[in-house]
Design goal:
The complex is a heterodimer of chains A (156) and B (519). By secondary structure, chain A is of the alpha+beta class. Helix content of chain A is 46%, strand content 12%. With 519 residues, chain B is α/β, with parallel strands linked by helices. The chains are: A alpha+beta (156), B alpha/beta (519).
Chain lengths: 156, 519
């Protein structure tokens, strides 16, 4: 479900943030929301319009976990890997999800259907383990619940 | 003619993660279908009783009757049992304020959270909102500063530095511009008090930032919010827009002659950006590499200007400190830990949630009296307080009082007040290894002890568990930890050894050799 890169729209995203270097992280979020990843074209255009080097932009992109360099799957599943969720079985849940999806954490299915990612804390630590699917958080997710959530994304 | 009934269903991450949105929809359609009665559905914040979420409340005759936890499929039965009249049902919890978990708390910063629609300006003002900034305008900046100093309020983000002293430094600095930077990058596992506040009472944070700006002479504030909090982002974004519309942000705030505005920035999944100087770098659009200190951010912070960096709960505690006076806040707490702290019970705990009480209670009391023990029903084995950089404590240390100094004396760190409980199935060697692994993933890379030390730490722990040169590697791990503590530039590398060393000290049996090497 990759959206075609469009220079005019990219320019708009940059302009929305005033095209200022100090807005780079926010601009990259704008690209992430639209394209689900930061492409080489995006890095080039952002560097040009902010009057930065491509190395500058790349340095920022590669620093942050959010800014993936490959398109995300249609469904993005993030499983919390932090301590509170570990105490409630997130390691086992992650292993289950990897098996169920036939993917390793940080991988995207070859058909582009789903991306599995780690996340370190969704702030839902009283209702662990926590999972985020397409920006929505779910709590007390066990294997059965995980299956249900996945099935519901297929209906959508 | 039916009268209007107010029904409350939280719009808060924990509640929504357990089906609150679906419950709200089901309640609305049940109201239309069965009763034709006027039901006003209010999406409030959470009262912090996460174990009871979704917690539905019905207001009848001035009493709010609570039901919970309510699943969407419970709604029909609840309505049949007379939910809209406050009727009795197996999920009834009685009057919300009388639920012991809540009734035994002493709410200061969180007193409004969960009561009403967090975006309602009228509800906020009716509950004393914006009285703090109003009082500040009457008192003038230096008197406000005295109240904050007198309150003894210390930074709730983890370091516990006195807020008033920091503010005084910024106020005294001479510069053409100054900033307020609110750290809302609540990255420690087991912590969610900032989130509950931002989702449940965002105007309090805005008001706290206004007061900070007025006190130190800053006209621009930034909130650095973690990207893992999409709901908080929506609510906070709307709250900022509403505040601007009502003249509480912008030029000449409510005809006071004071200009102040707030910009909401998103983090991007980096843990180290919760460290204040890394956060400032990120706010400037750069990679979150930490800065050397000095200079202190209070003197050379955001864009090189004097900057107050405080976390959400710190700033949100200020409006009532100004409204009620610094002495009222200082009257709470123990020793040099004044006021209240919103502890967060998390992990393997039966009744997880937010507990705001004065400093001084014991960890055991929180875990047992409020938390009800483990969720699994098994014995508590280890408790990590203060996030991923906090020590693991065994049962024998649970009677330590929760105040900054007493806790530090026991080798712990209160940090942001997150308490993560583990039962007796926990593998403490795996937890120690994870601490190093997490540091290697999240290190900003600026200093060697953290960047390389964490990677070596994982390897050394693996060798210990694989029974390779065990004695030598144990000694090496000890030395490595010492190097990281002494040589790292910030708390990331400097504190990572705490969970590792505490696990080794209190749970040495878990580090015995295993057949087949690491698990």
């Amino acid at each position: 479900m990759t959206i075609r890169y469009d220079k005019a729209i990219a320019s708009e995203i940059i302009a929305q943030h005033g095209a200022k270097p100090e807005m780079l992280v926010q601009i990259l979020h704008g690209f992430l929301e639209r394209y689900s990843f930061i492409s080489d074209e995006a890095v080039r255009q952002i560097a040009d319009e902010l009057n930065l080097s491509r190395a500058d932009v790349h340095g920022v992109v590669s620093f942050y976990h959010d800014f993936r360099r490959q398109p995300a799957g249609k469904v993005v599943v993030k499983i919390c890997q932090a301590e509170a969720c570990q105490a409630m079985g997130s390691r086992e849940l992650t292993a289950y999800a990897e098996k169920k999806l036939g993917l390793k954490v940080k991988d995207t299915a070859s058909d582009g259907s789903v991306t599995l990612e780690p996340v370190y804390c969704l702030g839902n630590c009283a209702c662990s383990p926590a999972v985020m699917i397409n920006q929505r958080v779910y709590g007390r997710v066990d294997a059965a619940c995980f299956d249900r959530l996945l099935a519901s994304t297929e209906d959508a | 003619m039916s009268r209007s009934v107010r029904v409350f269903v939280p719009r808060e991450t924990a509640a929504v993660s357990l089906g609150a949105d679906e419950v709200a929809v089901a309640l609305e359609s049940a109201a239309q279908r069965n009763h034709g009665m006027a039901v006003e559905l209010v999406r409030n914040g959470s009262r912090g009783l996460s174990w009871l979420e979704p917690l539905v409340e019905v207001e009848t005759g001035g009493t709010r009757t609570a039901y919970g936890p309510v699943a969407p499929e419970d709604v029909d039965g609840l309505v049949a049992a007379g939910l809209f009249e406050g009727g009795t049902h197996a999920l009834s919890l009685g009057p919300a304020e009388k639920i012991p978990y809540l009734a035994t708390q002493q709410r200061w910063t969180f007193r409004r959270v969960g009561i009403d629609d967090p975006l309602s300006m009228d509800a906020y003002r009716a509950a004393g909102g914006f009285e703090g900034i109003g009082r500040a305008f009457e008192l003038g900046p230096s008197a406000v500063l005295e109240h904050v100093i007198e309150s003894g309020l210390r930074g709730r983000g983890g370091a516990g530095f006195p807020a008033g002293i920091k503010w005084r430094t910024v106020a005294a600095a001479t510069a053409d511009r100054k900033y307020i930077a609110c750290n809302a990058d609540e990255g420690d596992s087991g912590t969610f008090s900032d989130r509950i506040l931002m989702e449940g009472d965002p105007y309090t944070l805005i008001e706290g930032m206004l007061i900070a700006g007025y006190t130190v002479g800053a006209h621009k504030g930034y909130i650095y919010l973690r990207s893992e909090y999409p709901l908080a982002r929506r609510i906070l974004g709307q709250a900022i827009a509403n505040a601007r519309e009502h003249g509480w942000l912008g030029t000449n705030v409510r005809d006071s002659g004071f200009d102040f505005d707030i910009e909401l920035h998103l983090g991007a999944g980096s843990y180290v950006c919760g460290e204040e100087t890394a956060m400032l770098e990120s706010l400037e659009g750069k990679a979150g590499l930490i800065r050397y200190k000095p200079p202190l951010p209070a003197l050379e912070g955001l864009f090189g200007k004097p900057t107050v960096v405080n976390n959400v709960v710190t700033l949100a505690s200020v409006p009532d400190i100004v409204r009620l006076g610094g002495a009222a806040y200082a009257a709470l707490g123990s020793g040099r830990s004044k006021g209240t702290l919103a502890f967060q019970l998390a992990g393997n705990v039966k009744r997880g949630g937010l507990v705001e009480i004065p400093f001084g209670a014991t960890l055991r009391s929180l875990i047992e009296d409020w938390g009800g023990g483990t969720a699994s029903g098994r014995p508590v084995r280890a408790v990590q307080v203060g996030g991923p950089l906090g020590a693991y404590l065994p049962d024998s240390l649970l009677d330590t009082p929760l105040d900054y100094e007493a806790f530090a004396a026991a080798g712990g760190m209160i940090g942001h007040g997150g308490i993560v409980v583990f039962d007796d199935t926990v593998d403490m060697a795996a937890q120690a290894r994870f601490a190093m692994e997490f540091c290697s993933v999240e290190s900003c890379g600026k200093c060697t002890p953290c960047r390389i030390g964490s990677v070596r730490g994982v390897e050394v722990i693996d060798r210990i568990l694989g029974n390779q040169d065990r004695a030598a590697n144990l000694e090496l791990l000890d030395e490595l930890c010492e190097t990281m503590v002494q040589g790292s530039l910030c708390a990331m590398g400097g504190l990572t050894p705490y969970p590792v060393k505490s696990a080794l000290k209190h749970f040495p049996g878990d580090f015995e050799p295993r057949s087949g090497g690491k698990r």
